[in-house]
Specification:
10 helices; globular; 5-stranded antiparallel β-sheet; single chain
């Protein structure tokens, strides 16, 4: 899974069995299949900050087991189970030999339908028995099988169809709330994204904008640890993106990023950034994104032996 995760062998374990990864870049989506040995996979705060990925990774396990550790706790993954990773959050995976189908998609493709998808980070669910989940998996698996035969003009429509099916699968798992509450949650989060650059954006501003009590507003963000924490997280992730994107003059100034993302001053921003990612904004590498976009569908074969030996 490198470069999304740092991969190392568990102490005393030897490489055995098939080792391969086939990936297909379909414009907005990346799909593929992996056969991997026992290993420890880590996505560290530094990787999160430097890569600037605002994507979701779903792995559908065919065989093998893993223990996934994230901030909220641990989850076990096994055959007929799908695990979701929010790549804007750290994670550690302790895996036995695994065979899985992968789907990587931008958060933006599902954000409107599943506004609190971040709360599913590190959660696993059975894709074999639930009908919608099974349909989602079958679609992704068939896409892997025929990806190298698709016409480039078909890819945007296919990407949208897969995202819509994934949204239908994930929406019920993210929250079992009445439709009006879901629509309110979507509206609030869309408003936050538009107003991130405003230093006035806070719980009081949101409560007034939507006519809500502080208690009602907080309930909308329980899974994210509260509304202020959610706003701070979205500001820092936007700042991370800006810092990793090159400009005509080389890179954005730290002060510019701070004010653009709603922080009152550069010092406050730098402290918050270091607490979140473990290093200062000026230490972020420009152009550290993982995948660029290409015009054609391309199969990408990666050698696990080479990655694990690196």
């Amino acid at each position: 899974m490198s470069p999304v995760f740092q991969a190392t062998l568990p102490s005393g374990r030897l490489l055995s069995g098939p080792i391969a990864m086939d990936n297909y870049h379909l414009g907005e989506l990346l799909v593929g299949e992996v056969r991997a040995p026992a290993q420890i996979l880590e996505r560290t705060p530094r990787m999160v900050a430097q890569q600037g990925l605002d994507h979701l990774l779903l792995q559908f396990y065919h065989s093998g087991t893993s223990r996934v550790e994230v901030a909220w706790g641990e989850a076990d993954v096994g055959p007929n189970t799908c695990i979701l990773f929010d790549l804007a959050q750290p994670a550690t995976v302790v895996a036995e030999p695994v065979h899985a189908t992968n789907l990587l998609l931008p958060r933006a493709l599902v954000a409107e339908s599943v506004p609190n998808v971040a709360s599913l980070h590190g959660h696993a669910f059975d894709y074999a028995t639930d009908r919608v989940s099974r349909l989602f998996f079958t679609c992704v698996r068939e896409l892997v099988d025929c990806a190298d035969m698709l016409d480039v003009h078909q890819l945007p429509h296919i990407s949208q169809a897969v995202a819509m099916l994934g949204s239908a699968c994930l929406r019920g798992r993210a929250a079992a709330r009445p439709a009006n509450e879901v629509q309110l949650s979507i509206a609030i989060r869309q408003y936050i994204e538009r107003e991130l650059g405003s230093p006035r954006l806070d719980a009081e501003m949101l409560a007034a904008q939507f006519g809500l009590s502080r208690a009602t507003l907080y309930r909308q963000f329980i899974s994210e640890g509260g509304v202020q924490r959610f706003i701070r997280e979205r500001r820092l992730l936007r700042a991370m993106k800006m810092l990793t994107q090159p400009t005509a003059t080389g890179r954005h100034r730290v002060s510019t990023v701070a004010y653009t993302t709603g922080f009152s001053d550069e010092k406050t921003f730098s402290r918050a950034f270091k607490r979140r990612f473990g290093f200062l904004p000026r230490e972020t590498e420009v152009g550290a994104g993982v995948w660029g976009r290409t015009a054609d569908t391309q199969p990408v074969l990666q050698s696990w032996l080479k990655e694990l030996a690196a």
